[in-house]
Amino acid sequence: MLLDYLARRFASKGTMYWKSIAFAILLTCIPITIVSCIGGYVGNRYLIQQYQQNNEIMLRESVRKIDGQFSQLVQYALHMMANPIFKPAIADMNYIDEFEKTQELLDTMSLIENGESLIDQAYLYIPKQNVLLQPVLGLRALDDPADRAVWNSLMNGDKGIFWTNHLTRPFGRSGSKHAIVMKLPFNGQTSYGALVLYVNPAMLQLNVNPDQAAYVLDGSDVVIGESDAAKSYPELLPRVLEQLGSSKRTYDSQSRFQIRADHEQFLMNAVSFEKMNRIWTFVTGTPSSKVTAPNSAYTHVVVVYWIVSLIAALGLSWFASNRFYQPFRKIMDLFKDGKTDEDADPSDEMAYIEAKWKQYRFANDSLQNRLDQSTPKVREALINQFVLGQAAHLSEAELTEKLRALQLDVTGCLFSVVVCQLHRLDGHKVPLTEKDSQLITYAAINIVGEMSEASASYVHTIDLLDGSIAAVLIFPESSAMADARNELLRLGGDMLRTLEHVLRMPSTIVVNGPVAPWMDIPFLLEQSRKALSYRTFTSESQLLEASAVLEQANPEVDFPYDLEQEFTHTLNLGLENEAADILERFVTALKNEGAPEWVVHQGLMRLKSSLYRSMLQSGHNPYALFDGVQLEEELRTLRDSEACIQWFGKRVIRPYIDLLSKSYQHAMKDVVDQVLQTIHDNYMCDISLETFAMEAGVSVSHLSKAFRQMTGSNYIDYLTALKISHCKMLLLTTDLKMNEIAKSVGYQPPYFNRMFKKLEGMTPGQYRLQYSETKLGKAE
To answer: How far apart are CA 673 and CA 679, in angstroms?
Structure first.
């Protein structure tokens, strides 16, 4: 069949016809193809050469900045090492007893971490005591023999400062292994410690464009930092290291080469520089396709010219041999796909064209239906990407055009955001499973979406994956700003009541808007989520307006300092129930002052810090008893006061009471209670601690330690504070002279004046005068 068909075609047209077509094709294609290939090759090579020359200049500037960053880091570290606090005495100090010096060291380490952007974490290593100090971890001992051996090896060698790229962070802390190690004292004969500064690779300023893959390699060719584009080409780094390993690098040496990796040809530039007495290397690579992209327009012109010339030659040849062919045959040739068509007869041109047209029309309608079905999902994905801040590179006009293409016109509309946070009721004894939480979130999304559709022309809901949901509401162009705001507040109130009625759970709803620009929606969402932390600290449902809440973001709350001191004192006495009662009054006082959720959380963290200080004063190590980071994360998830009180009692009070019960005997507690009672009744007499120890039949040191554990202060300071407190009461409530007040507490007047000014920062007379002026101002 095919042979017969070809025979008929050749017979009808003849050999010369096919030779002329072949000659026209060769005559047209070969010259144009050769010229196009040469032009494209020469143009691309020129672009590549110019790019690498320009890139070398930018590369040296980047190296200068990287070198400057590390030089600045070293200079900063050397400056901080000159701090008098890093003296040899810290190698032998008792970090538990000398808690104030320990805290000062931790504060200095915190200052070092926050003072330079390249520093991720800072550790002070004391090999003599085998301990590490770090602001977050506090004081920790290296109990693991492997860790101890690694850190002890840092003290070997004669270098006062050096770079390491394999020092694993202790205690399971995550992060890079790159660090600068400086021995204390710097360039001293004998080192008593080391300051270890871990580098944050993300803070390196590589100064490259988004398409460039860039690496900073240290003297061992270990990657210190890399650009975001480099992470997209996993095969590139091994090829680069192989190329650099085969060449000799010296200070300020520069090279260029090309590498094939990840289906791309990369144009590489490398510059070496000296840092930490080693040769470091900065390497950048750009896909050649990105460099030659500007030449694509020229290539397209050549291709179009080649195609046009070819079609013209073929058309003229075909017209010369087929000038009598009818147009129907040309249309049939367009529809032919090489397959047998049983429904259409090629001998009937009109019937064949009609049948093929129906087939293509049916295929087109099917594709259009699929497109219409997928449009809502694509639109939701685009809005999610924009609302979550992942489409900041698009302008308002571009986003509007994309949404219009996805059948959503937002021109001239008003936009608002509603954020909903569900809260577990106090009566829920059984925790919700993950499946229950997913079902509740799904139900809440449906409720919020359906209720919003009655007010807005379009609603887009988002699961924020942190227990809260958000809805973006689009009001029609005809809506007024004030009407849309009132409708939003009404809708928020209806949502609160519906969620509590249907799900049996209270919630906090934050409304924000409306605004006119579409680009403000991510900002509205961010404000709304921030306003959630300013909810009143109760388990009741609350409706908040983000703009109004954030205007009062710094409420004036009268902090209950007296309850803080009473709590610490009571807990030091081992009175668990009394301390729990004070804790409840502390939280209630904050709530009565109208403190929002985050203020109550901060108040409890302050209470924990006060307890830390008291424990350090009494000789206990709070960092060994509590995990401060975990406690703060657990507290941040609590949404009502009762849960906070129960959590504080279980996670803070109970462990400390257990510790106290092991640290001193009950009989010694009775002795201290008797001492406190006696000095409160006879504070005007000069009674020494030795007298109490002799009467109780215990040693002075034992009694002093027990007194400090229970009160958080030593005996002399406690007695002095008691006397001064009584003097302040006499100054404010009586007209007694200074001499009479001093003698009433057993002080000589000069000594009384000196002690009062030391503790209060002013003389007794100034204190009385200040109170009188304050009282007179209130009366007026």
So the answer is: 10
Degrees, nearest 5: CA angle 635-101-96: 70
Verdict on whether the full-model pTM lies above 0.85: no
d(CA 494, CA 448) in angstroms, rounded, equals: 10
- What is the token pair recorded at 61? 């500037």
d(CA 491, CA 448): 9
List alpha helices for 258-348, DSSP H: 288-291, 296-321, 327-335
Query: Which of 370, 395, 425 minimizes the C-alpha distance to 518?
Result: 395
What pLDDT, on a 0 to 100 scale, did the predictor assign at position 196? 92
Tell me the sheet residues that pair with 183: 194
Nearest to 155 by CA among 139, 167, 143: 167
Mean pLDDT in order along the chain per 10 residues (780 residues): 56 44 60 63 65 74 84 84 83 86 88 86 90 88 87 84 88 87 80 89 82 86 85 86 81 83 84 84 83 65 68 61 51 59 57 70 77 80 80 80 84 88 59 73 86 86 83 82 84 86 85 85 84 71 81 63 72 73 75 66 75 71 69 67 75 75 64 80 76 74 75 80 85 85 84 84 84 58
What would you measure as the largest C-alpha separation in the chain, in angstroms?
140
| Eight-class DSSP state of 431 | P
* Gap between the Cα atoms of 410 and 518, Å rounded: 8
Q: Are 176 and 198 in contact (CB under 8 A)?
A: yes
- CA 608 – CA 630 distance, rounded (Å): 13
252: left (phi over 0), alpha (psi -120 to 50) or beta: left
Under 8 Å between Cβ of 417 and 528: yes
Tokens of 718: 């406690």
Q: Are 475 and 377 in contact (CB under 8 A)?
A: no
CA distance 635 to 551: 25
The pLDDT value recorded for residue 610 is 74
Residue 620 C-alpha from the chain's centroid: 34
User: Phi then psi for 186, rounded to 5 degrees?
Assistant: -70, 125
Tokens coding 366: 């099917």
Q: Report helix, strand or coil for 365.
A: helix
**C-alpha radius of gyration, the chain, whole number:** 40
Give the contacts of 132 (CB within 8 A, at least 6 positions apart): 123, 124, 125, 126, 139, 140, 141, 142, 151, 170
Closest by CA position to 610, among listed 655, 650, 563: 563
Q: What are the start-end ranges of the E strands in 235-313?
A: 254-261, 264-275, 278-287
Pick from 535, 444, 540: which is nearest to 495 by CA? 444
From CA 746, how far away is CA 748, in angstroms rounded?
7
Residues 275 and 742: their CA atoms lie apart, in Å, by 67
Rounded Cα–Cα distance for residues 600 and 441 (Å)? 27
Q: What is the pLDDT of residues 521-551, one digit of tens each?
A: 888 888 888 877 777 766 678 888 888 777 7
Q: Which of 113, 115, 114, 133 is nearest to 123 (CA)?
A: 133
Nearest to 177 by CA among 197, 155, 148, 206: 197
Contacts of 665 (CB under 8 A, 6+ apart): none
Residue-level pLDDT at 97: 85
Between strands 414-422 and 264-275, the pairing is unpaired
Tokens of 676: 């406190």
CA separation for the pair 101, 95 (Å, rounded): 8
| 188 neighbors 160 (Cβ within 8 angstroms) | yes
Amino acid 24: pLDDT: 55
Only one residue has tokens 């460099």, namely 291
Question: Tokens for 206?
Answer: 């590589």
* Best CA proximity match to 269, nearest among 54, 45, 65: 54
Pair type for strands 223-226 and 414-422: unpaired
**Could you give the CA distance from residue 542 to residue 480 in angstroms, rounded to a whole number?**
26
Chain segment 230-287, per-residue pLDDT in tens: 888 888 888 888 888 887 788 778 888 888 888 888 888 888 888 878 888 988 888 8
